[in-house]
Amino acid sequence: MTWPAAPLPPAPGGVPDFLTHRQVSEGGQGMATTSQTEVPAIDGWFTTGDEPALIGTRCAACGTVMFPPSAASYCRNPRCDSESLEAAELSRTGRIWSYTDARYQPPPPYIPRTDPYVPFALVAVELEAEGIVVLGQVADGYTVDDLAIGAEVELVVEPLYEDDDTTTRTIWKWKPTGTTSREVSA
Q1: First and final C-alpha spacing in the chain
Q2: Pick from 64, 69, 66: which is nearest to 42 by CA?
Q3: pTM higher than 0.70, yes or no?
Q4: Average pLDDT along the chain
């Protein structure tokens, strides 16, 4: 079963294609080479590459940062009446504010990566510089046993699902760095 990419609005001001798409070659010497295209499952919400980042919206007047990016033409801060918004690359690291695991398979349009379904961890990550909390899955290979409130995580991009023989849809996830808030303050 295949599902199309989510029809969500791109970030205000758009995100250049070179930030969101990349080609990955597979194969080896003497083998036919196939090209697998990695494409964000939600266009305009994050970049890919060696140092991926979430793309939010920043109000040019008051500096309020919003994620996900919005197609709305007004600041979400109730004390600001500005309509001047710009795309903003958000911090790549943050601290776990809360976490849980998805023990039960979500309903469609969720696409399970394995059959049978394998539970995965979810985190709410506080981006200190922006003053916001962003939700996301935990990187592959990590469970709630690897998480702690206040622990540092970094943004990574991993496959979400394949929608045909040549396209892998990707999504941002949070990977534990092994640093806790106690280690940082010591």
Answers
A1: 50
A2: 69
A3: yes
A4: 80
Name the band, by pLDDT with cuts 50, 70 and 90, for residue 6: very low
**What is the Cα–Cα distance from 26 to 132, expressed in whole angstroms?**
38
SS3 90: coil
CA distance 183 to 107: 39
Structure tokens at 73: 């033409």
Q: For residue 106, give both structure tokens.
A: 């979500």
- Please compute, for residue 149, the number of CA atoms within 13 A of its CA located in the half-sphere on the CB side: 2
Backbone angles phi, psi at 155, to 5 degrees: -75, 135
Residue for token digits 């940082």?
Answer: 184
Looking at residue 5, its pLDDT comes to 38
DSSP element (H, E) containing 183: helix 181-185
- Asked if pLDDT for residue 122 goes beyond 50, the answer is yes
Distance CA 160, CA 75 (A): 31
Domain ranges of the chain: 17-185
Tokens of 101: 């695991």
